[in-house]
Amino acid sequence: MSDQLLTAPAPAPARSFLSGPLPVLLAAVLWGTTGTAASFAPAGASPLSIGAATVGIGGILLLAVAGRSALPVLRSGRTGLLVVGALAVAVYPLAFYSSMALAGVAIGTVVTLGSAPVFAAILERVVDGVRLDRRWALAAAGLVFRCLACC
Questions:
Q1: What is the per-residue pLDDT across 110-125, written as a single tens digit (0 to 9) for each?
Q2: Single pTM value for the model
Q3: Region class of 130: left (phi > 0), else alpha (psi between -120 and 50), else beta
Q4: How far apart are CA 133 and CA 118, in angstroms?
Q5: Where are the domains positioned within the chain?
Q6: How far apart, in whole angstroms, are the C-alpha atoms of residue 147 and residue 134?
C-alpha cells in the first residue's frame, strides 16, 4: 500500500478573524442597513437615483478590488452568463430601493431578503440543473410563511 493513502491531507491554513469573519460581518451590517440609510435621503432623491448611485459606486469599487482577477472570467467564453449576472446586479438595487419607497423599509426588507434565497435556488435549478428536493421545498414554504407572517 502506498504511503500517500496512509497520510492525512494537510489542514487548510487558519484565517484570522480580521481576514475571515470580520469583513463578512461588516459587509452584512452595511448591506443590511442600506434600506434604512436610503430612507434618510433628501426628499428629492428618487429610489432609482439611489439605486443607480449604488450600482455605479459599487461597480467601481468591485472593479478596483477585482482588478486583473476578472480577466480569466472574461476570457472563459461564458460572457453570456457574465452579462446576465451583470444585468441582475444592476437591476437589483433599482428594484430594491423602489420597493423600499413603495412598501416601507421593514416590509421591503423582509420581502427582499426573504425571497432572495428562493429565487437564487430556482435560478440554480434552471442554469445548473441542481435538483430541488423535499427539504428545499419545506424550507421555501417556511420562508414564504414567515415572510407573510411578518407583513
A1: 777 777 788 888 888 8
A2: 0.62
A3: beta
A4: 13
A5: 46-103, 104-151
A6: 20
